Amino acid sequence: MKLKNICLALVLSVSLSGCADWIYRIDIPQGNFLDEKDVKQLRIGMNKEQVTYVLGNPVIQDSFDQDTWYYVYEIKRGMSKRGKDFRKELVISFEDGVLTQVTGDFELSEDFNTPLDQ
């Protein structure tokens, strides 16, 4: 009798573990979603207001360095079927209120080093 109960419990637990994918779990996006075409609009020499117009407000502004902005986007997938978790970053540096350097996971346009005034 005990063996029968143990076998029944084992079969039930194995069969119920197969139902784990039936539960819907949402993706959790956080941060600034940046489109590649928006990042390609950046030009050296832009002021902070122009960068904010193109990309929006940064997620993180360093309290001790007002000339460095961090745009971070991260998504945690609720279900592995929808893909892997990923993270993208863009760090923008200003000098005297003017854009001087952009680093991160995005490609810049070929015209990045051409100021807007020309």
Automatic annotation (TrEMBL):
Quaternary structure and interacting proteins, as annotated: Part of the Bam complex.
Positions of the Outer membrane protein assembly factor BamE domain: 31-100
Extract the Gene3D superfamilies matched here: 3.30.1450.10
User: What's its membrane topology?
Assistant: Lipid-anchor
- Please give the family membership noted in the entry: Belongs to the BamE family.
UniProt keyword list: Cell outer membrane, Lipoprotein, Membrane, Palmitate, Signal
| Entries under PROSITE patterns matching the protein | PROKAR_LIPOPROTEIN (PS51257)
Superkingdom classification of source: Bacteria
UniProt function note: Part of the outer membrane protein assembly complex, which is involved in assembly and insertion of beta-barrel proteins into the outer membrane.
List where in the cell it is found. Answer: Cell outer membrane
InterPro entries in the cross-refs: BamE, BamE-like, BamE_dom
Q: Where are the transmembrane segments?
A: none
Q: Supply the name of the protein.
A: Outer membrane protein assembly factor BamE
